[in-house]
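Hello, quick one for you while I still have it in my head. A protein chain has come my way and I'm curious about its shape. Can you walk me through what the tokens say about the fold? No rush at all, and the record is pasted right below.
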Amino acid sequence: MNPLLKVKNLRQYFKISRNFTVKAVNGVSFEIFPGETYGLVGESGSGKTTIGRSIIRLYDPTGGEIIFNDKNISGNLDKKTNRMLRKNMQMIFQDPMSSLNPRKKIADIIGEGLDIYHSYKNLRERNEIIANILQKVGLSPAHAERYPHQFSGGQRQRVGIARALVMNPKLIIADECISALDVSIQAQVVNLMKDIQAETTCAYLFIAHDLSMVKYISDRIGVLHRGYLVETGLSKEIFSNPVHPYTKSLLSAVPIPNPAVEKQRKFLNYDSSNVDYEHCTMKKISETHFVLEN
């Protein structure tokens, strides 16, 4: 099976001044296959969101290659490629309120992609598509006539998911889509995403801080640190046999819901001040497990 998305040596730099450039993403490579969920984890500022925005071309990549649906989308996009990208790749943003237009009704927010790509024959069919997608994400068709401020955080995130799903994309980039929600709502949203994936066979790039949730939803995981992919492998391999010291440090910080065990838990500190990632190379641990080493 060919990968749906192939990222090769992706670099994303931001020039702050004449003498200073932020290297947000530095030589990241990974693949996502159809129907798969690839989780990206790491501390704040490690480059997770930047990778997602570069892949969907909200940022122009500084270097590297992004192959999506057998098309190179890393350079200047012609009209045909841009149209294919916008239709087959969607993003669920971290803050559901700021990503929804407060002046538009939910029906117009969800239906904007349908309007652009003329994906319906008449107004009746448009309304039916919107009603069906709202029901699929656990909302009522009557909610289509409301505005974003009339919803709770969890409901707004469902609207964001509905907007991403309505175009039947092949890849959805979920950028911290559960971090602003209560724990009970997080579980509902993640279960909803898994159910939709089983039904539509879409792939997810799942970006999150919550390691337990990433473990639950992801087939494979990539660990980011300072813009570098330090370890990647199957979810069970990363959690049962972490190799890189930074991965071990992250996992040691996960709380354990057992007071007796939690009292004995030791946090591993990772000092990267003397590590020169630019001269490290990826080492193969197994067929699917790789780690960045000197």
Remarks:
- The mean pLDDT is 90.
- The two ends are 32 Å apart (CA to CA).
- The chain is about 35% helix and 25% strand.
- Residues 183-200 form the longest helix (18 residues).
